[in-house]
Amino acid sequence: MNAKRRAAATLALLGLLQATLGTLLTIAENKDFGAPLFWCATFSFACAWFAERRAATS
Question: How much is the mean pLDDT over the chain?
Answer without folding.
Answer: 89
